[in-house]
Structure formats: structure tokens, C-alpha cells
Amino acid sequence: MMTLIQTYGSMLIRALGQTILLTGLSLIFAMIIGMIFGLMNVGHNRVLNLIGTIYVDAVRGVPLIVLAYFIYFGIPAGIQSIGITGFRMNALQAGTIALSMNCGAYMAEIIRAGIQSVDRGQMEAGRSLGLSYSAGMALIVVPQAIRTMIPSIINQFIITLKDSSILSVIGFPELVNVGKTIMGNTMKCLETWAIVGIMYMVVIITLSKVSKKIERRVNRGR
Amino acid sequence: MADNRISGGDNSPQNKIQVRNLKKNFGSLEVLKDISLDVAEGEVVVLIGPSGSGKSTLLRCLNQLEKVTSGQIIIDGQDVTDKHTDINKVRENIGMVFQHFNLFNHLNVMKNMTLAPVHLKTLSKEEAKVKAQQLLERVGLGDRAEAYPSQLSGGQKQRVAIARALEMNPDIMLFDEPTSALDPEMVGEVLAVMKELAREGMTMVVVTHEIGFAREVASRVIFMEGGYIVEEGTPDEVLNHPKEARTIDFLSKVL
């Protein structure tokens, strides 16, 4: 085990860095996607509701691995078939798109549920004072919704971090992919996967500890 | 029955609120069937009636928290049912007090009061704070500016809600069953604030079950049932000498 760490330690750390990079980028985009589609779904515009519902249903209805294959292999092939050559996407780009879309759909649901958990009277009180719908959302509803959303958002972050391992299938050099390489080179299955597992665990436990702190701080004003 | 009043009051400047042939449906349910109503400046109109009679819906139509199905509502000369009217601007002049207070739970009392005027730039931050403090003193809560809604009693919450509405300097106040969610011993403190407002000449439309308040403060009492105005008149006329059978029946149950 020690020799494994000595030989492959820096490679594993770099792989962890790639995992965190991919997850971090995806979470940022997922928050934006989730905000947009989540707000579409709480409004009263039927067209926007429909678009939001279609997005969430479509993305949630497809396994992440299929989405990743579709974006990494399918889309460039499709673009080539209509006669445009030279379109390239690297594994990080494709992986970030797939993971953002996937996480974004779940985030949209979390945000929708969070906003709908705020009593309607809050928005009505804001509107009755002369605030616009968007001001009411931004100043009154969303700040209250965030409190109820934080545990679910952190939970989704953790799921997305783990799901990033699925992107090993398109060759992105994240933790699981590098784990496979090391296993192939050394045949030390037990040690390799134990180390990879522990690395995930350390990151995720740290993340949940931080989230507990945030939750406590946010709830203090209640 | 209110229709015969229209001819006298049309477009006269002292009418703060004019409602013409208002209809409101929720799906296939007709909640307001044909409501016409004028409220003059400084008048205190109290709406009474059984639950489901449409009185709260009527109130919520006045500031367009409910969109009307048909008919016209004119507030201070502006047709609020017209799509081109800037409803947010009109609402700045119409304060509303809700049954469940609807204080902003994430903000303390001071921020509850200053949020709208500061955001809408009707007051600077400093002006808003000074005014909020004065209003809080007026409703007897001068020492609770830093408290959060969860730290207040129901009666205190409702007094803050009234003060929050007054912070926008409205010239009409709407009250939607303001004492219905209160413990009995807290009803008095809220009614006292409302009475003072009425004395100062505020134009008020109040939905309430407090017949005593109606008797004492109202310039006019309107009895509604089934989406219609059944009877209206002075408190003495409607409450002491009702003419309509349905009014008599209702009053016999609540008095």
C-alpha cells in the first residue's frame, strides 16, 4: 500500500484535482441552470412552465452515462453529418456540460420546491406595498427559500461529486479513471479502490461538515 | 342594488374608489357576481357577511391581488383593471393588512418597514428609518424595532403590519380580517390602532367579523352574500334595522 501511494500519490492527487475541477465547474453552471428553470416553473407563464417541465423531465429521464455519451460522441457526430467539419469537444467540456445539465435539472426541482415552500402571503405582502414580482422574489421570497434549500443543495453537491466518476467513461482523467489505470498497471485492486474510496470520502465528509456550519449560521436569525 | 348610486358619484374627485359591475370567477365558480361600489375620501366602509360571500375577494380585487374577470375598478382616477396602468405605482398608495400578518419572517421589524420605501426610492434610508420609528411609537411598539417577527405576539405582529403599510404613506387602507387570527385578548389593541386611523380621516375598507367595530367606526356597512351586495347603509340602518331577510338571518347568528 505504501509503495502504491509513493508511486502513484501525485497522480491520484492530480486526479482528485480534476474531479474537483469538473464538479466545481458543473455546480456553478448547475446553479445557474437550476435558478433559470426553477424560476420558470414557479411563475405563472404557461409557456415558461412547459419549457421548464420539459427540461427537467428530459434530463432526469436519461441516465448520466447516456447523456455523457450523447454529448461527447453523439453531438460531434451529428454536427459532422450535417457537413460541418472540425468541431471538437474535449472530455472536460463534454463532461462539464453533461454533469451541469444533470445536476441543473435536480437543482431546478430543489429551487422550485424551496420557493413554493414560502407562504404565498409573503409575496402578496410585498406586492401590496408596490414591489414588482421580481423585486418580491429577490428581496422577500428567495432569501427565505434559501434557508430551506441549503440542506438539499449540499446533498445534491455531494451526489454530483460522486456522479462525476461516471465521466470516466468518456476518458476524463478524474479519480476513477486514474484508479482504473493504476489497477491495470499494478493489479492491486483492493489497495487501489480503497485509496480512491477514502479520497472521495474525505472530500465529501469535509463538504458536509462545512454545510452543517453554513446551515447553523443561516438559521441563527430565525 | 348599489347601481342606483352610480349616477351621483361618477368621476367626482372625492371618490377614492369606484367599482363598476365587478365580476370575478375562480374557474367555473362565480365569487363576485355584479358588484358596484363607491368609497369616498375619509370613509370607513366595513364589509360583513358569511364566509364565502366574496368580501375578501372584493377587497383583494381592489389592489389587484386578484385579477378581475370583468368590470372596472377606479382608484384615485386610475383604472387598475386596465393593463396599461402601472399597478405597482397604484399599490404604493393602497396599504393592505392581512389576516395572517404576512410580516417578512427573515427581516426584523425595522427592515420589514423600510424594505419597500427604500427599494422603491420613495424615501431615503435615513428618512425611512426615522419614519418607521415614529410609526412604531404610534402603534405602541417603539422598543421592538430590532425584534424578528417570530419574537412578537400576534397582536404585535399585526400592529407592525399596519405600521409597515403606513410607512408607504398610503391614502387608502385595506384590512382583510385583521383580527381573525388573533387570540381574543389581542383583538382590542389592533382595533384601537384602526380606530385611531379612522379618526385621522384615512379612507378604509375593512373586512371583519367584529360587529362592534363596525358599529362604532364605520361610516357605512355593506352586507354581502353569494357574491352580491345584499344591503348597505349606515351602521344603524344595517346592523340595528336590517331590511333584507338574509341580513337579519346573518346578524342573528353573529350578534
* CATH-derived topology of chain A: MetI-like fold
- Average per-residue pLDDT of chain B, rounded, comes to 92
Greatest contact between two chains:
A-B, 20 and 26 residues
Distance between the termini of chain A: 50 Å
Q: What is the makeup of the main sheet of chain A?
A: none
**Radius of gyration of chain A, Cα only, in angstroms?**
21 Å
Number of DSSP E strands of chain A: 0
Distance between the termini of chain B: 25 Å
Q: Helical percent range of chain B?
A: 25-40%
Range of strand content of chain B: 15-25%
Helical content of chain A stands at: over 70%
Task: Let me know the CATH homologous superfamily of chain A.
Answer: MetI-like
Characterization of this structure:
The complex is a heterodimer of chains A (about 220) and B (about 260). Chain A has helices spanning about 1-40, 45-60, 65-80, 90-115, 120-130, 135-165, 175-185, 190-220. Chain A is mostly helical and about 220 residues long. In chain A, α1 (about 1-40) packs across α4 (about 90-115), α2 packs across α4 and α3 crosses α4. Chain A is flat and about 70 Å long. The mean pLDDT of chain A is about 90. Helix content of chain B is about 35%, strand content about 25%. A six-stranded mixed β-sheet of chain B has the order 6-7-8-3-9-10, with helices on both faces. A four-stranded antiparallel β-sheet of chain B has the order 2-1-4-5, covered by helices on one side. At the A-B interface, α5 and α6 of A face α3, β6, α4 and α6 of B.
Strand-helix topology:
The complex is a heterodimer of chains A (222) and B (255).
Chain A: H1 2-42, H2 46-60, H3 64-81, H4 91-116, H5 120-128, H6 133-163, H7 175-186, H8 189-219
Helix pairs in contact in A: 1-2, 1-4, 1-7, 2-4, 3-4, 4-6, 5-6, 6-8, 7-8
Chain B: H1 6-9, E1 15-26, E2 29-40, E3 44-48, H2 55-62, E4 70-75, E5 78-79, H3 87-91, E6 94-97, H4 109-119, H5 125-138, H6 154-166, E7 172-176, H7 184-199, E8 203-207, H8 211-217, E9 220-225, E10 228-233, H9 235-240, H10 245-254
Parallel strand pairs in B: 3-8, 3-9, 6-7, 7-8
Antiparallel strand pairs in B: 1-2, 1-4, 4-5, 9-10
Helix pairs in contact in B: 4-5, 4-6, 5-6, 6-7
